[in-house]
Protein backbone atom coordinates (compact mmCIF):
# COMPACT_ATOMS: atom_id res chain seq x y z
CA UNK A 1 0.00 0.00 0.00
CA UNK A 2 1.36 3.37 -0.93
CA UNK A 3 -0.03 6.51 0.70
CA UNK A 4 1.27 9.99 1.06
CA UNK A 5 1.58 11.50 4.52
CA UNK A 6 -2.03 12.71 4.40
CA UNK A 7 -3.32 9.25 3.54
CA UNK A 8 -3.88 9.92 -0.16
CA UNK A 9 -3.09 7.05 -2.50
CA UNK A 10 0.05 7.64 -4.59
CA UNK A 11 0.56 5.16 -7.41
CA UNK A 12 4.20 4.08 -7.54
CA UNK A 13 5.59 4.60 -11.05
CA UNK A 14 6.24 1.30 -12.84
CA UNK A 15 9.30 2.79 -14.57
CA UNK A 16 11.73 5.31 -13.09
CA UNK A 17 10.59 8.81 -14.02
CA UNK A 18 12.97 10.76 -16.28
CA UNK A 19 12.92 14.55 -16.22
CA UNK A 20 14.23 17.13 -18.69
CA UNK A 21 17.96 16.67 -19.36
CA UNK A 22 18.77 19.51 -16.96
CA UNK A 23 16.73 17.95 -14.13
CA UNK A 24 18.27 15.92 -11.39
CA UNK A 25 17.28 14.44 -8.09
CA UNK A 26 19.58 14.10 -5.13
CA UNK A 27 19.25 12.41 -1.77
CA UNK A 28 21.27 13.75 1.17
CA UNK A 29 21.74 10.61 3.26
CA UNK A 30 23.37 9.26 6.39
CA UNK A 31 22.80 8.45 10.03
CA UNK A 32 20.80 10.63 12.37
CA UNK A 33 22.55 13.91 13.12
CA UNK A 34 24.96 13.73 10.16
CA UNK A 35 23.59 17.02 8.80
CA UNK A 36 21.06 15.87 6.19
CA UNK A 37 18.53 18.62 6.94
CA UNK A 38 21.11 21.38 7.31
CA UNK A 39 22.97 20.51 4.10
CA UNK A 40 19.88 19.69 2.04
CA UNK A 41 18.18 22.95 2.92
CA UNK A 42 21.15 24.99 1.69
CA UNK A 43 21.70 22.76 -1.31
CA UNK A 44 18.06 23.02 -2.38
CA UNK A 45 18.28 26.81 -2.10
CA UNK A 46 21.52 26.88 -4.09
CA UNK A 47 20.09 24.68 -6.82
CA UNK A 48 16.63 26.28 -6.81
CA UNK A 49 15.04 22.87 -6.27
CA UNK A 50 12.25 21.84 -3.89
CA UNK A 51 13.27 20.25 -0.59
CA UNK A 52 11.59 17.04 0.54
CA UNK A 53 12.14 16.32 4.25
CA UNK A 54 12.03 12.55 4.52
CA UNK A 55 11.14 12.61 8.21
CA UNK A 56 7.89 14.46 7.38
CA UNK A 57 6.62 11.35 5.60
CA UNK A 58 7.10 8.78 8.35
CA UNK A 59 3.74 7.32 9.39
CA UNK A 60 2.80 8.15 13.01
CA UNK A 61 3.52 4.53 13.95
CA UNK A 62 7.18 4.96 12.95
CA UNK A 63 7.53 8.23 14.86
CA UNK A 64 5.91 6.62 17.88
CA UNK A 65 8.28 3.66 17.67
CA UNK A 66 11.38 5.86 17.45
CA UNK A 67 10.14 8.08 20.28
CA UNK A 68 9.84 4.97 22.43
CA UNK A 69 13.45 4.09 21.64
CA UNK A 70 12.70 1.21 19.26
CA UNK A 71 14.73 1.12 16.03
CA UNK A 72 12.80 0.87 12.79
CA UNK A 73 12.90 -2.46 10.98
CA UNK A 74 12.96 -3.02 7.21
CA UNK A 75 9.18 -3.53 7.25
CA UNK A 76 8.66 -0.16 8.99
CA UNK A 77 10.68 1.60 6.33
CA UNK A 78 9.25 -0.15 3.23
CA UNK A 79 6.13 1.99 2.63
CA UNK A 80 7.96 5.13 3.76
CA UNK A 81 10.61 4.60 1.06
CA UNK A 82 7.94 4.02 -1.59
CA UNK A 83 6.25 7.26 -0.58
CA UNK A 84 9.55 9.13 -0.78
CA UNK A 85 10.14 7.68 -4.25
CA UNK A 86 6.69 8.90 -5.31
CA UNK A 87 7.47 12.34 -3.89
CA UNK A 88 10.69 12.48 -5.91
CA UNK A 89 8.85 11.44 -9.07
CA UNK A 90 6.20 14.10 -8.46
CA UNK A 91 8.89 16.81 -8.65
CA UNK A 92 9.34 16.64 -12.41
CA UNK A 93 12.18 19.17 -12.54
CA UNK A 94 14.18 17.54 -9.76
CA UNK A 95 14.35 17.77 -5.98
CA UNK A 96 16.58 17.42 -2.95
CA UNK A 97 15.44 14.73 -0.48
CA UNK A 98 16.67 14.09 3.04
CA UNK A 99 16.53 10.39 3.85
CA UNK A 100 18.76 8.23 6.02
CA UNK A 101 18.77 5.63 3.16
CA UNK A 102 20.95 3.45 5.36
CA UNK A 103 20.87 0.22 3.36
CA UNK A 104 21.60 -0.47 -0.27
CA UNK A 105 18.14 -1.99 -0.76
CA UNK A 106 16.57 1.25 0.55
CA UNK A 107 18.61 3.28 -1.91
CA UNK A 108 17.57 0.94 -4.71
CA UNK A 109 13.90 1.49 -3.83
CA UNK A 110 14.49 5.23 -4.28
CA UNK A 111 16.50 4.62 -7.46
CA UNK A 112 13.56 2.78 -8.96
CA UNK A 113 11.45 5.96 -8.73
CA UNK A 114 13.55 8.39 -10.81
CA UNK A 115 16.40 8.06 -13.27
CA UNK A 116 20.02 8.74 -12.31
CA UNK A 117 19.30 9.41 -8.67
CA UNK A 118 22.34 10.89 -6.89
CA UNK A 119 23.24 10.38 -3.25
CA UNK A 120 25.40 12.65 -1.11
CA UNK A 121 26.48 10.65 1.93
CA UNK A 122 27.49 12.70 4.96
CA UNK A 123 29.75 10.37 6.92
CA UNK A 124 30.27 11.08 10.63
CA UNK A 125 31.54 9.12 13.60
CA UNK A 126 29.21 7.52 16.17
CA UNK A 127 30.58 9.96 18.77
CA UNK A 128 29.78 13.02 16.63
CA UNK A 129 26.31 11.68 15.76
CA UNK A 130 25.56 11.04 19.43
CA UNK A 131 26.77 14.49 20.42
CA UNK A 132 24.64 16.23 17.79
CA UNK A 133 21.49 14.18 18.43
CA UNK A 134 21.80 14.72 22.19
CA UNK A 135 22.05 18.49 21.62
CA UNK A 136 18.91 18.68 19.47
CA UNK A 137 16.11 19.79 21.80
CA UNK A 138 12.55 18.68 21.12
CA UNK A 139 13.42 16.28 18.30
CA UNK A 140 11.59 12.95 18.30
CA UNK A 141 14.73 10.91 17.67
CA UNK A 142 16.41 9.74 20.90
CA UNK A 143 20.19 9.46 21.37
CA UNK A 144 19.68 5.85 22.52
CA UNK A 145 18.94 4.88 18.91
CA UNK A 146 22.12 6.30 17.40
CA UNK A 147 24.04 3.01 17.72
CA UNK A 148 21.31 1.21 15.74
CA UNK A 149 21.81 3.63 12.85
CA UNK A 150 25.45 2.59 12.55
CA UNK A 151 24.49 -1.07 12.79
CA UNK A 152 22.09 -0.64 9.87
CA UNK A 153 24.34 1.59 7.75
CA UNK A 154 25.74 0.01 4.59
CA UNK A 155 28.38 2.33 3.16
CA UNK A 156 27.20 3.52 -0.30
CA UNK A 157 30.76 4.17 -1.54
CA UNK A 158 31.20 2.52 -4.93
CA UNK A 159 27.52 2.53 -5.84
CA UNK A 160 26.62 4.60 -8.94
CA UNK A 161 25.91 8.28 -8.46
CA UNK A 162 27.30 8.54 -4.93
CA UNK A 163 29.42 11.29 -3.40
CA UNK A 164 30.81 10.62 0.09
CA UNK A 165 31.72 13.65 2.18
CA UNK A 166 33.14 14.05 5.68
CA UNK A 167 30.09 15.34 7.55
CA UNK A 168 32.17 17.18 10.13
CA UNK A 169 33.37 19.72 7.54
CA UNK A 170 31.85 23.21 7.56
CA UNK A 171 28.32 23.41 6.17
CA UNK A 172 29.28 25.84 3.43
CA UNK A 173 32.10 23.53 2.31
CA UNK A 174 29.78 20.52 2.16
CA UNK A 175 27.20 22.39 0.10
CA UNK A 176 29.86 23.69 -2.27
CA UNK A 177 31.40 20.23 -2.73
CA UNK A 178 27.99 18.71 -3.43
CA UNK A 179 27.11 21.51 -5.83
CA UNK A 180 30.34 21.14 -7.82
CA UNK A 181 29.97 17.36 -7.98
CA UNK A 182 26.35 17.55 -9.12
CA UNK A 183 27.32 19.94 -11.91
CA UNK A 184 30.13 17.66 -12.99
CA UNK A 185 28.07 14.46 -13.01
CA UNK A 186 24.88 15.87 -14.50
CA UNK A 187 23.60 13.81 -17.44
CA UNK A 188 26.16 11.05 -16.87
CA UNK A 189 25.82 9.92 -13.27
CA UNK A 190 28.67 7.51 -13.82
CA UNK A 191 30.57 8.00 -10.56
N1 LIG B 1 28.61 20.31 9.15
C1 LIG B 1 28.14 20.59 10.35
N2 LIG B 1 28.93 21.14 11.29
C2 LIG B 1 28.47 21.40 12.53
N3 LIG B 1 27.21 21.15 12.94
C3 LIG B 1 26.36 20.61 12.05
C4 LIG B 1 26.78 20.30 10.72
N4 LIG B 1 25.72 19.78 10.06
C5 LIG B 1 24.70 19.75 10.94
N5 LIG B 1 25.08 20.25 12.12
C6 LIG B 1 24.24 20.36 13.33
O1 LIG B 1 24.03 19.03 13.81
C7 LIG B 1 22.69 18.86 14.23
C8 LIG B 1 22.04 17.77 13.40
O2 LIG B 1 21.93 18.24 12.06
P1 LIG B 1 20.69 17.81 11.16
O3 LIG B 1 20.80 18.57 9.89
O4 LIG B 1 19.42 17.91 11.94
O5 LIG B 1 21.04 16.26 10.90
P2 LIG B 1 20.10 15.10 10.32
O6 LIG B 1 19.04 15.77 9.49
O7 LIG B 1 21.03 14.27 9.51
O8 LIG B 1 19.56 14.36 11.50
C9 LIG B 1 22.00 20.21 14.07
O9 LIG B 1 22.06 20.88 15.30
C10 LIG B 1 22.86 20.91 13.04
O10 LIG B 1 22.83 22.31 13.19
O1 LIG C 1 15.29 5.04 8.86
C1 LIG C 1 15.33 5.45 10.01
O2 LIG C 1 15.71 4.77 10.99
C2 LIG C 1 14.94 6.89 10.30
O3 LIG C 1 14.59 7.57 9.16
C3 LIG C 1 16.13 7.53 10.86
O4 LIG C 1 17.22 7.25 10.00
C4 LIG C 1 16.06 9.01 10.99
O5 LIG C 1 17.33 9.38 11.33
C5 LIG C 1 15.10 9.46 12.01
O6 LIG C 1 13.90 9.60 11.37
C6 LIG C 1 15.55 10.74 12.70
O7 LIG C 1 15.61 11.81 11.83
P1 LIG C 1 16.99 12.53 11.48
O8 LIG C 1 17.77 11.58 10.61
O9 LIG C 1 16.59 13.77 10.76
O10 LIG C 1 17.70 12.74 12.74
Automatic annotation (TrEMBL):
<dbReference type="InterPro" id="IPR027417">
    <property type="entry name" value="P-loop_NTPase"/>
</dbReference>
<dbReference type="GO" id="GO:0005975">
    <property type="term" value="P:carbohydrate metabolic process"/>
</dbReference>
<dbReference type="GO" id="GO:0046316">
    <property type="term" value="F:gluconokinase activity"/>
</dbReference>
<comment type="pathway">
    <text>Carbohydrate acid metabolism.</text>
</comment>
<keyword id="KW-0808">Transferase</keyword>
<comment type="similarity">
    <text>Belongs to the gluconokinase GntK/GntV family.</text>
</comment>
<protein>
    <recommendedName>
        <fullName>Gluconokinase</fullName>
        <ecNumber>2.7.1.12</ecNumber>
    </recommendedName>
</protein>
<keyword id="KW-0067">ATP-binding</keyword>
<dbReference type="GO" id="GO:0005524">
    <property type="term" value="F:ATP binding"/>
</dbReference>
<keyword id="KW-0418">Kinase</keyword>
<dbReference type="GO" id="GO:0005737">
    <property type="term" value="C:cytoplasm"/>
</dbReference>
<dbReference type="InterPro" id="IPR006001">
    <property type="entry name" value="Therm_gnt_kin"/>
</dbReference>
<keyword id="KW-0547">Nucleotide-binding</keyword>
Amino acid sequence: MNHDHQGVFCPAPSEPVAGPSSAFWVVVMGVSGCGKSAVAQLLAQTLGLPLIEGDDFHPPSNIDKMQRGIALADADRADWLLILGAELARCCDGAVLTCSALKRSYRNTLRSAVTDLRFVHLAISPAESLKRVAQRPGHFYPPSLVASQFEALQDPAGEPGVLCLAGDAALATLVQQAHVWLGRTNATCAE
